[in-house]
Amino acid sequence: MATNTMTAGEVRRARSPVRSKLMDAASRWAFMAPAAIILAAMLAYPIIYTVEISFARFDLMTFSAVEFVGWENYAHVFDDYRFWSSMRVTLIYLAFALPIQIVLGFGIAYLINALWRGRGAVRALFIIPMVVAPVVAGGIWRMILDPLWGIMNWVAGLFGVDGLDWFGDPTLAMASIIIIDTWRWTPFVILIATAALLALPRDIFEAAEIDGANWWSMLWSITLPLLVPIIAATFVVRWLGAVKMFDIALAATYGGPGGATNVINLFIYEEAFRSLRFAESAAMAVIVLVLTMVLTGIFLIGTRRLEDRY
Predict the structure, then answer these.
(1) Which residue has the higher pLDDT, 12 or 41?
(2) Least crowded by CB within 10 Å, which of 227, 228, 273, 308?
(3) Are 221 and 275 in a shared domain?
């Protein structure tokens, strides 16, 4: 009669794979633990400290929260029309800058991906705006867009356009911020788009070419559908960077004229370090963080659905 009993040695051998996996996982976490603890502390402490300040009265002498006030700071923020004005300015900037950068980035990447002489040098030149410091970029563009001596108005004058006050007119000031940010971050989109184009399967295009498809048909029917998930993912990555926009507005326009380019991060900075309203500024930062997390989650869900569809 067969028996199902196992010897002690067989039991140890059966448990050894499980034990080895646990030991392997423990050793990996042991090596990662110091870096993970430091990273968690550096990320968690500022967030917890900001949330604590947002629900308390802030003492400038001790630079800490001294009295819990509940939602009072948030009520002040929601009643502040300047906060909503800064949010509106930020939304206008995002609504124009992000689509322009995505379209330009993928369009330029498609053009320089074609086989032509010197495309490697052109690709290298597109990286230059990314390595320029934001303050330097803002200063350079202030000179380029200067109403009296700027080269932009000189070029416009060649076409019969009178000198434009780029930083004095509210609409042109917002346009200048979008132009500077697009100049600086479109190369980032170009790099991602170029890598995506090079990774596309060539056999599909070869088969379409044999069937007589022209470049427009291949672009509209093959390239764009294959790139939809990459475009969506690039939009999310760029969104996370654009929503933090602060340095360009600070260096180029300082939020002016009349708050026309006073994006939310610049407004929070001004309220905290100029007006010394740290508690209200912390509440603003928490509100922006929550909104950013919610919108990012929505964009990620949309990106995942596009990936499943295409």
Answers:
(1) 41
(2) 308
(3) yes
